[in-house]
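Record type: monomer structure entry
Structure origin: computed from sequence
Chain ID: A
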Amino acid sequence: MSAEKPAMLPSMLKMKCPNCRKGHMFTNKSIFPLGKLLDMPERCPVCGQKMELEVGFYYGTGYVSYALSVGLFFFNLIWYWGLIGLSYKDNSIFYYLITSVTIVLLLQPWLMRISRVLYLYMFVKYGKGNTMKSEE
């Protein structure tokens, strides 16, 4: 009986280890308390994959988070324009900006976590990661 390879997108959304797609990437499953939002184990509890590949590895997640935020602003622009409409003749553009900034600020804890997940998934492939077994 062979184990099937878990799907990538559901594993990313569940924030699972990119190497085994079973272990949790964060020590706290909830985003609360916010002080422990980005706490990660040193290694995956299931396969032993290192969560920080090198010192300062997660500095690059700022770019990923920025791209996700810009994408969210454009998504908000499309639905806001379609449902409510935008015009330079009234204050609707300001209402759009207030709505978009509020949505991005409320989703920021999730965006910070998912940007770490996406960044690690870019560098660690399924079943080919840096596990404890390969270091011995």
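Annotation 1: The chain has a mean pLDDT of 90.
Annotation 2: Residues 8-135 form one domain.
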